[in-house]
Design a protein that fits this description.
Distance between the termini: 59 Å
Structural class: alpha/beta
Number of helices: 17
Strand order of the largest sheet: 1-2-5-6-7-8-9-10
CATH architecture of the largest domain: Alpha-Beta Barrel
CATH class of the largest domain: Alpha Beta
Largest sheet: 8 strands, parallel, barrel
Number of strands: 18
Bound molecules: 3-methyl-2-oxobutanoic acid, zinc ion
Strand content: 15-25%
Number of domains: 3
CATH superfamily of the largest domain: Aldolase class I
Radius of gyration: 24 Å
Length: about 550
Amino acid sequence: MDPAVSDDRDVVLIFDTTLRDGEQSPGATLNIQEKLEIARQLARLGVDIIEAGFPAASPGDLDAVRQIAESVGREPRIDKFGRAAPPPVITGLARASQNDIDAAWEAVKAADRPRIHTFLATSPIHMEHKLKMSPEQVVERVREMVGYARSLCPDIEFSPEDAGRSDPRFLYQVRAVAIEAGATTLNIPDTVGYTVPVEYGQLIRDIRENTPGAKNVVISCHCHNDLGLATANTLAGIENGARQVEVTINGIGERAGNTSLEEITMALYTRHQVYEVDTNITTQEIHRSSDMVSRYTGMVVQPNKAIVGANAFAHEAGIHQDGMLKHKRTYEIMDAGTIGLSQSKLVLGKHSGRHAFRVQLEQMGYRLDEKDLTEVFRRFKDLADKKKMVTDSDLQALIGDELYQPPEVWQVEDVQVNCGTTVIPTAVVRLRNVATGELFTDAGFGTGPVDAVYQGINRLVGVPNKLVEFVIQAIDQGMDAVGDVTIRIESEELVGTVERAQGGRGQRIFSGRGIDTDIVVASAKAYMQALNKLLAAKEERESVVALGV
Ligand code: KIV
Ligand code: ZN
């Protein structure tokens, strides 16, 4: 057997928390369709464990985790060697309380391989000010709740929150109790991204050496990026014996984010001679996963982001281009193809038929039902009329834009603008109320054409908000490139039912994304999508308040 395929490989398990810690990034809220699609893609990517959400946070979160457990958590898959492999482990986060643990179990129990992930803070500052518990009470709660979780599920992960700022001797004690009570994975969260690599690596080593029973459990790293050290800390953890890493796609997460999946995977792959460990990740799926998560969360990837940024494989300087032409390896340590990034190519044109279109989508990993296929095919034909070369990136953007829209209250029906050097930019906007089908028209003026459109929309929708981010990108090169607009808006009132466990705040920032060959239309669609999310959250909050929950 090829030693690379052998089961004697020393494997670091990849625990993906894009749908839980990642979704806690301001404005990254995902709807159920988007969560399911991302979970499917994570399974294809080869992640070992999917943390699908925080079931006790809201009935919607519980339902999303349950649907992922019932679908992705039961579908066998093909691993990176082409062998049949079991579905990923599906886990849900729970505070160390019976209520949360019950909700997590309810959500994950349908999966073939369920896990409950429970946590309790162990740092002096968290115990004293947040939990208002003594260290002795914390130890007792861990014993009780890990034991309770274990009575429900055979696979239990325990996290001492803020381990990075906890007293190591207290950590040994808490962890020994967690193991005794039945934990099978022990995670070491650097919750506030405070540690540096030499410290975090040593912490992992000390825990392995000093915690009774630690040899029988998997030690896991969970790092935040507040000092830009999440990847370095996680690699230090692996060097010191951790065999599970908690990561997110594109490194999204609270504040400066979490360790990024693609950085860890490609560091272990490219520098195998240093770490001598393997992962189960199919690296060719990295780029597609990054693109999907960025599209659905509205979190744009910075161009110079390692591995998945738009410039990660681009060479601008003449001296670099010259070297690259002479020998590819002069300035490139990885092949773009390894992460699934091929040169965007002409895949279809306006004469392509439905069959060729379906085959192309299947090769890209999309299986659409007849209704969705018809809709996307119609959009493709419209696009092919405006743009000669429709590339795989265009198709991917179009699918995201067409199929995974949040529930719509309003739809953009028509936009007309008048702008130039000597006129005040004005816009006429026509919106459709989706529930009634009625059309409403109004006009606005502003500092530019996009602002004028937004003012017109505001007059019709009437929801106070502030635009906090506006990013416009071209999906491919060329004068006829498709415009891709991402925006974030902040609601002027608190909306949403989810009091996030970490920050204790409701959701206030909403993202929207729109694509079109006309950038003003793309901007209008993006704004409409963000406003629809805001309206849905407002309605959810109002119904919860009315029920007195
Ligand atoms: O950062 C953190 O401490 C967490 C835990 C809940 C694992 O996300
Ligand atoms: Zn975290």
